[in-house]
Amino acid sequence: MKRNKLRDIWADGRPVLHGWLSMASPFGAEIMAAQDYDAISIDIQHGAVGYEDVLAMFMAMRASEKVIMARVPWLDPAWIMKVLDAGAYGIICPMINTRAQAEEFVSYMRYPPLGVRSFGPTRAVYPAGGNYAAEANGEILAWAMIETAEAMSNLDEIAATPGLDGIYIGPADLSFSLSEGRLTPAFDREEPEVIEAILKVRDACRANGIRAAIHCGTAEYAIRAVEWGFDMTTVSGDTRLLAGAAAQSVADWRKGIEGKAKVTAIKGGY
Whole-model pTM? Predict the structure, then answer.
């Protein structure tokens, strides 16, 4: 089985740059995978994608040799195992709030005797290569999302879950939950109580020898997260990048034509 390149990046002491896909577009996925990301995930939870879209997007990104992962909709063995069988090298599972849920998640990720994953890697054997059954447990990454006050109260127990590879912070839901709705969900938080929680997750990961990841809105904030000690940072995503580039292009055009001559009216035709 092909080695998970993220493990080699971390072994070299380098952080991972992670891309994010929310649109059901194989071409868009191919474009994103052509950029200098280390890994890219498809967001099945909140993205406008279904299983057939995921499969097509995985295939479109295969040639890039990026580490391809996905965020599943929920703690659901059907989704987790089906996305793994499609070829994912990592799964991000949302709303993990307890040690029991983390253990359940890990069990769905691993073949026996380490878990209960059913064998049937229909597509995965092609991009991953041979000996998949024997080596998948050691290569595929299990990320538990911490994004609620309840999860923070159980953080140390979750981080100590055997077989868990890392914790992925969802700052929008986390800030919303910690503030009991006072804060509007968003990335790149500056509130002291949220930054305190972020650093607490980092410390729990370090104490248990697992990786810490966080979703960021900008490269600047992601660089700060790396300086804090995070092993993987997500920077924006396809929808935000498209909207931002389009908005900037439109603004540049409209600013550029201010004060210019008006379009000449044409009479008697088109």
Answer: 0.96
